[in-house]
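== Item description ==
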Amino acid sequence: MLKNIWASKNIRITTKLRILNSNVKCVLLYGAETWRVTKATLQKIQTFYNTGLRRIFHIRWPERISNEELWKRVGREPMDIQIRQRKCGWIGHTLRKSPSSITRQALTWNPQGKRKRGRPTNSWRRDSESELKTQDMTWHDAAKQLRIVFVGGLLLMAYVPHGAKGLRIEIPDNQGKEFIIGYMEANAFDGQVSKKPVDLFITTSSATPVDVEISTPKYGNNVEKIIVTPDKVEHVQLRKELRLHGNMRCNNGVLIKGNKEIIVFGLNVADASTDGFMALPVDVLGTKYYVPAYRNNAHFVNYFKTAILVVGVEDNTNLSIKLSVGGNVEVEVDGKKFHDGDWINTTINRFETLHIVTSGDLTGTFILTSSPVSVFGGSTVTTIGSGRSRDHVEEHIPPVNVWGKTFFINPIPNTDDNIFRFLSSQDNTELMVNNNKYVLQKSGYFLETRLQGFSVVTSNKPILSVLYVPSPTDRSKSGDPAMALIPPREQFNSFYSFATPVSSRNAEFSTVFVFVIEIKDKNGIVLDGKPVSMSQIKGLVPHDSFSAGYLEIPPGSHTLKHSSVIAKFSGILYGGANKESYCFPVGQRFAQINEVRMYVLH
């Protein structure tokens, strides 16, 4: 009977998964909390469940898909983790009972003597204690109702306080209810300080309107309230004085809050010199950063500068900055000068901004704080590559704990060969770039290279991948210098909502969405609720099991998703106009995949 259901083309995959979980798995794991699970038993259970999943997704034997990849596709955990979840939940539930409860007494009772001949060496209690010990826990800890979940391939632990109704862990992404940002120095193509306002583009994937408040709590306490409606973009201009300039400390932090989740993009505009960034919500921010910038040694002009902006999120945050080595750096903070490799030790408060600039290259600068901060990096204005056109470039930098190890590189179409920098977070980081091996011996070191066509980059330790669109050598090609962070494979998402900005001269950019997706899923992309035909996809290039291409995007607010709920892809938005361009990722997940995290759920 089940075979007919799994094979049916009239039943949606989501419905089949619900049937598998509600009618099959619940019976399969009934009473699993009290099992003493052996390897043989676990293998039989897992094989049965995997078979059901493979039949639902019509995965035949010639398709060599590992079980790990199968679980990743459907967002399910292995059976040993699911059983451990149930066991730990039941242990916590039982241990919180009254000491007089027979159930609790039976759970903690430890009879003395030897077991009879023929009985297993291990008991349920001994197995459970071993599992708790691997998490450095005791029975007392389990009484706090430990839950174990898998997120992004990692084992994460969550304490659910007594009285909490159920467990719900959300993987952070670029959508959020609170953002704290700032605007670093942006100069015109001739080095003049920008006199243009700074811009915000706000949209939402919510089905209902969202109340949004934009304020500068420590800079005049200006407040602007707007309503963001679904599938539309709200363009907000803020006063130009919020933009930082030179080495300075002030209170120019911008707070953006919504009563529901919103998506925020910033645009920092100077005359014929523009770049944008995807804003990171507060729940994504961290305490450890390595910052990318860009200095072009081949075509350097004295007003080209690299810059870093740090915005405080909490009061009395200890802030330590180790300047990059070998970049001819000189900055001034609080009246003191610092150079290559120097440590800057200070504090920063909520909404306070610390801005440093130098004619040297700040790429690889390390930031360590006692509380989360918001960090931006880039260049005030620069050329990139061998062309002569100039532009401001910047990005909102993610913390190290969300960096990745696998990247699919798809250069921006109709531009000169793109430049890429791969920045290390740990010593002795090994990189494989299209089967060529490189080693970054120290944390903060980076590899710079040009790549043509669809490429694959992997590493043994977390890295940050940065794309730099070069100054065009052929004016028939679009745009100007731009900078974008490349989402790692581990952080691909299945839904994106974004907006296209306008240029400094109020002209529309020619915008493309450059994407990477698994080959088997390339037919299911949906733009603004309408399926994308293969004729709309341009420059489609396969590489192993993935393919890359791009779509031309009209001006306005847009949504991109896949018709399959389990298909994930990534994308970068690039817009070119006369003498200026912008580039940023349209979104990604920000699971903290580089460390074990303890979440307290309410």
Remarks:
- Helices lie at 2-7, 13-28, 39-56, 67-74, 79-95, 102-108, 124-134, 139-142.
- The two ends are 41 Å apart (CA to CA).
- Residues 112 and 353 are 64 Å apart (CA to CA).
